[in-house]
Amino acid sequence: MTPRIATSPFKAAPDAYQAMIKLEQTIGASGLEHSLLELLKTRVSQINGCAFCLHMHTADARKAGESEVRLHLLAAWRESSLYTPRERAALSWAEALTRIEQTQAPDADYEALKAEFSESEQVNLTFAIRAINVWNRLAVGFRLAHPAEPARVAA
After folding, report:
1. Contact status, residue 35 vs residue 65, Cβ threshold 8 Å
2. Is the CB of residue 28 less than 8 Å from the CB of residue 124?
3. What dihedral do alpha carbons 130, 104, 123, 88 form, nearest 10°?
4. pTM of the model
């Protein structure tokens, strides 16, 4: 994959990048669980096909103690019993907002969200979903490559 611009998009537009960093810091300080935010970032990145962000957020989730099994099953979270009702509500909302042109943010998804999150948490969660969608679009749109890892040799 060949990057589309010579410099990183973050260096090309440092003020916008700093605004996104400030948003991430605000979301991080909002009281939402770090583990939940990493699950959301990973799931939205799966939907958007963003290898750069998938690499980053699965690594961050592992460092924070997330299990390999839950990361592997995240794409099929609806079929797994490994996710809490709070995580399910957040993942459903994340999928609905990421695919908003198809879903129009269904009332059922919002009702599940409302049952698990305060109004402040709902808004902060929505900002988190919007933020990862922006990062995904930057990385996919400008063809940012994830860090290379050594190839594994078959046993």
Report:
1. yes
2. no
3. -90
4. 0.92
